[in-house]
Amino acid sequence: MTHQLQIRLLTWDVKDTLLRLRQPVGEQYASSARAHGLKVEAPVLEQAFGQVIKAQSHSFPNYGLSQGLTCRQWWQDVVLQTFHLAGARDAQAVAPIADQLYKDFSRPCTWQMLEGAEDTLRGCRKRGLRLAVVSNFDERLEGILMGLGLREHFDFVLTSGATGWCKPDPRIFQEALRLARVEPAVAAHIGDSYHNDYKGARAVGMHSFLVVGPGPLDPVVKDSVPQEHILPSLPHLLPALDRLENSSTGL
Fold this sequence. Notes:
This protein is of the alpha/beta class and 251 residues long. The chain has two domains: 9-18 and 114-248, Rossmann fold (3-Layer(aba) Sandwich), CATH 3.40.50.1000; 22-110, Orthogonal Bundle (DNA polymerase, domain 1), CATH 1.10.150.720. Strand 8 (207-211), helix 10 (219-224) and strand 9 form a beta-alpha-beta unit. Helix 1 (25-35) packs across helix 2 (42-59), helix 1 (25-35) packs across helix 4 and helix 2 (42-59) crosses helix 3 (71-85). The longest helix is centred in the N-terminal third of the chain and has 18 residues, at 42-59. It is elongated. The strands form three sheets. The chain has a six-stranded parallel β-sheet, with helices on both faces. It has a two-stranded antiparallel sheet with strand order 1-10. The chain has eleven helices and ten strands. Helices cover 47% and strands 14% of the residues. The termini are close together. The protein has helices spanning 25-35, 42-59, 71-85, 91-104, 117-126, 141-147, 160-163, 170-180, 194-203, 219-224, 237-247, and strands at residues 3-4, 9-12, 19-21, 111-113, 130-135, 156-159, 187-191, 207-211, 230-231, 249-250.
């Protein structure tokens, strides 16, 4: 006997899936520096930040929590190193900028919803789907979601900062399944990272959709991800769910 698949749980990445920064990081850093009397060019800061965040994440993964750091200390160190690499080497002058930036990135007004985010979440709720967050974010995420009016859409929020597990670690996805009391076969994850989101969720048996935006597809994504799993924008999700449920049958 065959039956139609019915997805019961959707888990969501947040940054660059539901929300994005209103300004590029370099501009935000440069603006805060100017307010403190320090002039550093935004493109230089942007380039430095890219190098620093990669090195910091490698040396102190998941905000250094297992190495005794707090999220705040981790981010302040990122700011100090970014300015140092950009040529501003007076740590005493940069310290108040780091404090301010940590507060600024905690504020909902620093973030904006991607097109169709709220309507898509509402549409999922109308279908009776349970929604949850699974994000490599820190302790500030709950407040940001609340301030933007999105927290009410989610049954629970799991962050790497709270759980100690960074996507694609299977444990963070498995914890979401445990909290929702569903099997992976009736759950799907939505995110913008091929490695962390798409592959991470599929590794535990969940369905997955990759948010790619309007630009050209990365060759790895093009070769590895079926077209029906690719979302050019969030409004494509509900039709993609329909196709998934209508095409999947089992004994």
